[in-house]
Amino acid sequence: MTGPGSFGTKGTYTAICVLGQVSGRYSITIPTDAGPMHFAPTFTATPVGVVSPIEGSQPGMHLTGLEVFVFKRGNCVTAPVTEAMINDTLIVTSQNG
């Protein structure tokens, strides 16, 4: 790594309030001496409340971690959640040995 990279996510949250299923794809770019490296692993998560363990992969890599949801629009009590911010902590490992 030669500096800060970028990270994004796009997915689908199917749930009854905070019990459900999340799936999607991360977009990760890491700057290196050889140029930027791009990764786009898919992931699934099963939230329990506002916390969710994550599993994801793409050829050559596996990731695990924890996701915390912060509701931005809606609250699951008086209005459905239609927008949320997600804080992720991920561990990425190589599957290439």
Strand content: over 45%
Q: Shape from CA axes?
A: elongated
Structural class: mainly beta
SSE series: EEEEEEE
Q: Helical content, roughly?
A: under 10%
Number of domains: 1
The number of distinct β-strands equals 7
Mean pLDDT: 84
Uncertain segments are: none
> What radius of gyration results from the CA coordinates?
15 Å
SS summary, helix count: 0
Main sheet summary: 7 strands, antiparallel
How widely separated are the two ends?
20 Å
What would the keywords be for this entry?
mainly beta; 97 residues
Summarize the structure.
By secondary structure, the protein is an all-beta fold.
Structural overview:
- This protein is elongated.
- The two termini are 20 Å apart.
- The model has no long low-confidence stretch (mean pLDDT 84).
- Strand 1 and strand 2 (19-30) form a beta hairpin.
- Strands 1, 2, 3, 4, 5, 6 and 7 form a seven-stranded antiparallel β-sheet that branches.
- It has one domain (6-94).
- It has 97 residues and is mostly beta strands.
- The protein has strands at residues 6-16, 19-30, 37-39, 42-45, 51-58, 61-73, 83-94.
